[in-house]
Amino acid sequence: MPGHTGGETACSRLNQADFGSVEEILVRKIAFICLLSVVAGHVHAQTERYVTDSMRLETRQGPSTNHRITHMLSSGARITVLEEDTETGYSRVALDDGSEVWILTRFLMDEPAARAQLAEAQEKFTRERDNARDLASQLETMSQTSGEIEQSRSALATDKKLLQTELAQIKQAAANTLAIKERNQSLDKQLEAVSMDLDAAEQRNRALKERSERDWFIAGAGVLLGGIIIGLVIPKIRWKRRRGWGEL
Fold first, then answer.
1. In this predicted model, what pLDDT tens digit does every residue of 75-98 receive, in sequence order?
2. Are 79 and 136 a contacting pair, CB within 8 Å?
3. What is this structure's pTM?
4. What whole-number distance in Å separates Cα of residue 104 and Cα of residue 84?
5. Domain residue spans of the chain
């Protein structure tokens, strides 16, 4: 059928085009590998690589299948590449136990296998989760501590206000005490002055009393002397009068 023939022709063209692209890519890779072989020969840089995922890979004593198998490496095993032989497609590697063996280079990867990465990610996730739980616990503890500190701060603020009030009262009482003391000192001085005035008044009273008594004594003595004199004079006067009347 023409349509079918046309489809086959188109598919054939696409397949030829894809094959041509693949062939071109392969040619470029081969040329690149040849260039590396010419320039460097064997590569001696020590780099870490990983065995490819989903398989177990044998290692050999030499860079070919003719050499004896020494180990069976699990997927994701870490190795150190000591040398890459581009001609044989093998790499000389060092295992974790220190032994050096050969392994096919195409089965090595620059990153750990997916399962290893998954296990590492799960382990990291577990660590991060535990750290998050620890941080949450610490945060809760810090929140409780913060609440306790806030309560303590409020209590201290209240105590501070009470102490300030008591201090003001003490200052007022001290001021009143000083005022009372000064008032007492003033009253003591006034009392002392009054006492001195009282002593002076008592001295004046005693002096007046003594003077009064002395005056009364003098007055009494005068009266007594006058009475004596009168008592002596009056009889004589009466006698003279009688004598004078008798002469008449």
1. 778 889 999 998 999 999 999 888
2. no
3. 0.32
4. 9
5. 1-39, 41-112
**The CATH number of 41-112 is which of 2.60.120.560, 2.60.40.1220, 2.30.30.40, 2.60.40.10?**
2.30.30.40
Q: How many CB atoms lie within 10 A of CB 90?
A: 23
Closest to 129 in 3D by CA, of 139, 119, 121: 121
CA 58 to CA 246: how far, in whole Å?
A: 203
Residue where the block lists tokens 């000389």? 92
| Spans of the chain, pLDDT less than 50 | 1-20, 22, 38-44, 245
pLDDT (0 to 100) of residue 142: 85
Q: Which residues pair with 218 in a beta bridge?
A: none
Residues 6+ apart with CB under 8 A from 85: 42, 63, 91, 92, 105
